[in-house]
Design a protein that fits this description.
The protein is α/β, with parallel strands linked by helices and 314 residues long. It has two domains: 9-53 and 125-197, no CATH class; 69-123 and 201-313, 3-Layer(aba) Sandwich (Rossmann fold), CATH 3.40.50.150. The chain is built from eight helices and twelve strands. The chain has helices at residues 42-52, 69-82, 99-111, 160-165, 167-189, 203-211, 248-261, 305-310; strands at 89-93, 116-121, 125-131, 134-138, 144-149, 152-155, 194-199, 215-219, 232-238, 262-272, 281-288, 291-298. The strands form two sheets. It has a seven-stranded mixed sheet. Helix 3 links the parallel strand 1 and strand 2. It is elongated and about 60 Å long. Bound molecules: S-adenosylmethionine. Residues 59, 61, 63, 67, 93-96, 100, 121-123, 221-223, 238-240 line the site of S-adenosylmethionine.
Length: 314
């Protein structure tokens, strides 16, 4: 049995065609992501596309609108209380498609119309390579994330039962990736292939960035120093500092960078949760004498509390 993919905008009008023969979702090509901003249901389709698009570590780029409604409100209260009279400059790191950044910025802007907001991610875009009808999507490290060879779309989606349902698909994928996609990447390195960069930030974030001189999108790795300023008043890292993805040493490096890019008295907001509006286990810390002091706790607090508090004890 074979499973074909969704790779043309015309395939998006019929929802019943989104499913494979076993009732499972077809793979949507990420290439469609910037071809849908103003079609009907574009938000829903954009999320559908992102839900399937993972990097080589299995990290998905999809976030949810209204993910931290209550927590955001509480953060806003603490910002008003602790930073009144100060210029508000926020860096939100590891934002994926930046949906949750837009939510936070729009709330913040209501009370602080001149606040500067920077939303960043380590891999905010991908590179699309075209050769004939074959399209290969890679990251900066030249790793293959997706291949479209009509009517197939193969990505890094890790649905185990697919291997059992469509073994032939996996066999063809292996042949295509090893003998065709890799060759296309090689030709790209030699400058022989046309390419396009695709931003994975959501349309709302891109629109905000175009409409407001206060909202900025950028590429940044939390293991590096801040690319913008050492004068942030608020640093936010939600669902990023996952101990499954970073070693304790890396987490310590990231936290050191956060601390040095904040002003004295600035706030570090961090936590994790699941779906939209689920309970956030997070903490807001205030920087005092190059250490972090907790000023607000939600749920069980930040899972990194020990590492964060250890900063001041060095
Ligand atoms: C689960 S998402 C969280 C998105 C958003 N902050 C939220 O809570 O909805 C985690 C994001 O962290 C990003 N990320 C992973 N490692 C990173 C790093 N070293 N530096 C910056 N971002 C990173 C991933 O690209 C991914 O987009």
């Amino acid at each position: 049995m074979l499973k074909f993919g969704i790779y043309k905008p015309s395939q998006l009008s019929d929802k019943s065609a989104f499913y494979g023969i076993f009732g499972d979702k077809k793979h949507f090509s990420i290439v469609l992501y910037d071809q849908i901003p103003y079609i009907e249901n574009s938000e829903e389709i954009a999320q559908e596309i992102l839900m399937q698009f993972s990097d080589t570590r299995g990290i998905y780029k999809r976030t949810y609108r209204k993910r931290f409604e209550e927590f955001d409100q509480n953060c806003l209260g603490i910002i008003q209380e602790k930073l009144s009279g100060k210029k508000i400059i926020v860096h939100d790191v590891g934002v994926s498609d930046a949906r949750t950044s837009c939510d936070f910025y729009e709330k913040l802007q209501f009370f602080f119309p001149n606040c500067e907001f920077y939303a960043s991610d380590c891999n905010p875009d991908v590179i699309i390579l075209y050769k004939g009808t074959t399209i290969v999507v890679i990251n900066e490290a030249l790793e293959i994330l997706e291949t479209t060879m009509p009517p197939f779309v193969w990505n890094r989606n890790r649905i185990r039962k697919e291997k059992l349902l469509y073994p032939l698909n996996f066999f063809i994928q292996w042949i295509v990736e090893n003998f065709i996609s890799k060759k296309i990447v090689y030709e790209y390195q030699k400058g022989k292939i046309s390419m396009k960069r695709l931003s994975l930030f959501c349309q709302r974030a891109k629109d905000l960035c175009n409409q407001s001189s206060h909202f900025h999108l950028l590429k940044h790795n939390v293991l590096d120093k801040s690319p913008v300023s050492d004068e942030f008043s608020v640093l936010r890292a939600m669902n990023v500092l996952n101990p499954a993805l970073f070693s304790v040493q890396e987490l310590t490096i990231a936290i050191d960078h956060f601390c040095s890019s904040l002003i004295e008295g600035g706030l570090f907001i961090t936590g994790c949760n699941q779906d939209a509006n689920s309970l956030v286990h997070g903490t807001i810390y205030q920087k005092k004498d190059f250490a972090f002091v907790p000023v607000y706790v939600s749920g069980k607090g930040s899972p990194l509390n020990e590492i964060i508090l250890a900063k001041g004890q060095k």
